[in-house]
Design brief:
This protein is of the alpha/beta class and 227 residues long. It contains eight helices and seven strands; from the N terminus they run αααβαβαβαβαβαββ.
């Protein structure tokens, strides 16, 4: 996951132009990034335009239940939670307890913590707890955690979904390193395995959009669960 400011000056300028018009950061979002920085969290949050993209996905799918794998400081969580109805909920999973505490404070400041179920621990340990017989499927799943585990995250995303659920996976291009077939990078290996799963899965229709911007050259995978 590339940090902010890693893109070319032109890409960043274009991002800033459109973000100023379409995805302006308010005081709450600014305070969230400042709190993340003060706590020493890596500056790998989604960009404002990417946050707005996630928000639009919530609006397009009329999502009431969202699963987010990888909370960090809650910046993307805030973007999505703002589009939920009052009785909607985001279940967000964060491995690092210190990061989770920063996210909790950010969500409380944003007035959105009542819509968020923040769970702390290893995602692959937490996901089975969401799979009870009476569990309501998720309408939207956003995967933005350790990339080597993406194949397992995708399997759980499908299992916890319904026909029509949208699954978004961030950082799948990795400055083009994804095409290195013999890469020893476990993140690249994990993303390639996930892409192969998406291609072969009978209940998924998927694509990848390459992106450039303030965070450099990357991309996002999008899939929809078919009937």
């Amino acid at each position: 996951m590339a940090p902010r400011g890693s893109g070319s000056k032109k890409w960043t300028a274009v991002d800033n132009y459109f973000a100023t018009l379409l995805a302006p950061e308010d005081t709450v979002l600014h305070a969230t990034l400042e709190a993340n920085s003060a706590a020493g969290l890596p500056a790998i949050d989604v960009s404002p335009l990417q946050g707005k993209f996630l928000q639009i996905l919530v609006q397009m799918t009329h999502a009431r239940r969202i699963l987010e794998i990888g909370t960090l400081g809650g910046y993307s969580t805030i973007w999505m939670a703002r589009a939920l109805p009052p009785d909607g909920c985001i279940v967000t999973l964060e491995y690092n307890p210190a990061h989770a505490e920063v996210a909790r404070a950010n969500l409380l400041r944003a007035g959105l913590f009542d819509r968020v179920d923040l769970r702390i621990g290893r995602a692959l340990d937490l996901l089975p707890t969401l799979a009870g017989p009476d569990t309501t499927p998720f309408d939207l799943v956003f995967i933005d955690a350790d990339k080597r585990s993406n194949p397992e995250y995708l399997e759980w995303a499908v299992r916890l979904s319904r026909p029509g659920t949208v699954i978004a996976v961030d950082n799948v291009v990795r400055n083009g390193s994804i095409v290195q077939e013999k890469s020893k990078d476990q993140d690249v290996i994990g993303i390639r395995r996930m892409a192969e799963q998406m291609a072969a899965h009978p209940c998924l229709s998927a694509t990848v959009l390459q992106t450039v911007g303030d965070k450099g050259y990357d991309g996002i995978a999008l899939a929809v669960v078919l009937p």
